[in-house]
Amino acid sequence: MKNIVFATNNSHKLQEIRSIVGGRYNILSLSDIDCHDEIPETADTLEGNAILKARWVSEKYGYDCFADDTGLEVYILGNRPGVYSARYAGEPCDSEKNIDKLLSELDGLNDRRARFRTVIALISNNELKEFEGKIEGAIIKERRGNGGFGYDKVFVPEGYDRTFAEMESFEKNSISHRAKATQLLIDYLNKEL
Ligand code: IMP
């Protein structure tokens, strides 16, 4: 079985990808390879940060590796918060403050279209590949729902009338940006072996 590192310690993300990939790859976390580094995420694009993380692991630890980065892109805000989504309202990360800031920036604006975008960078056999997943939608004026995380309470995907936070997780996970990018990665990995 081939080892491949997912540059994360998020146990939910790891479990999800392990169950989809099945027995063909051994997906290792950062702690599995004893990497406790503060990996820099200093790029100003999602692509840049995903690549920084994947390169860090492949160059320093010698494993094939993939890494993801996600952001909420609001069109009328010039695609902000984008790569800065986690820390939009400053440090430490606080989802409720991030939502408050977003709603106040959009106050009085009619064009509330937005999308989530996930980029996954894979470094395998010294070759870089990128996979992208997107979901279009809109930011509503008030929070709705209790599920999910991040900006889910104010994001309604196109073609739906519920926010991500009002959906069951299986429903969100069947249409989400992350699910789409992950599926592309998995299709590629399954073809590669
Ligand atoms: P990460 O790259 O997966 O850590 O995501 C960065 C930030 O984007 C998170 O801290 C959240 O604020 C936001 N985000 C990412 N994915 C989602 C999602 O599925 N729903 C809501 N917010 C998200």
TrEMBL record:
EC number: 3.6.1.66
Binding annotation for substrate: 8-13, 70, 149-152, 172, 177-178
Alphabetical list of CDD domains matching this protein: HAM1
Co-factor binding comment: Binds 1 Mg(2+) ion per subunit.
Gene Ontology molecular-function annotations: dITP diphosphatase activity; ITP diphosphatase activity; metal ion binding; nucleotide binding; ribonucleoside triphosphate phosphatase activity; XTP diphosphatase activity
One BP term from GO: nucleotide metabolic process
Main enzyme class: hydrolase
UniProt entry keywords in alphabetical sequence: Hydrolase, Magnesium, Metal-binding, Nucleotide metabolism, Nucleotide-binding
Cofactor: Mg(2+)
Recorded GO CC terms: cytosol
Active site: 69
Binding site for Mg(2+): 69
Catalyses which reaction(s): XTP + H2O = XMP + diphosphate + H(+); dITP + H2O = dIMP + diphosphate + H(+); ITP + H2O = IMP + diphosphate + H(+)
Function: Pyrophosphatase that catalyzes the hydrolysis of nucleoside triphosphates to their monophosphate derivatives, with a high preference for the non-canonical purine nucleotides XTP (xanthosine triphosphate), dITP (deoxyinosine triphosphate) and ITP. Seems to function as a house-cleaning enzyme that removes non-canonical purine nucleotides from the nucleotide pool, thus preventing their incorporation into DNA/RNA and avoiding chromosomal lesions.
Family membership: Belongs to the HAM1 NTPase family.
Subunit architecture: Homodimer.
PANTHER family in UniProt: INOSINE TRIPHOSPHATE PYROPHOSPHATASE (PTHR11067:SF9), INOSINE TRIPHOSPHATE PYROPHOSPHATASE/HAM1 PROTEIN (PTHR11067)
NCBIfam families cross-referenced by the UniProt entry: PRK14823.1 (NF011398), RdgB/HAM1 family non-canonical purine NTP pyrophosphatase (TIGR00042)
Name the record gives this protein: dITP/XTP pyrophosphatase
